């Protein structure tokens, strides 16, 4: 499965995000937002106001 597929399937689930900088976070993904145009980037929203851009993510593990 591609990273975009994993991001799409993460919405409404508990996930573990492995970042390109080596950090790892377990969180609840509230929403997946796709890129609107070529200047945008897909992202995941979590924790009310947190956002993770696709370019920050190495891989995603869906926990539930």
TrEMBL record:
Name used for this protein in its record: Uncharacterized protein
Organism, as annotated: Anaerococcus tetradius ATCC 35098
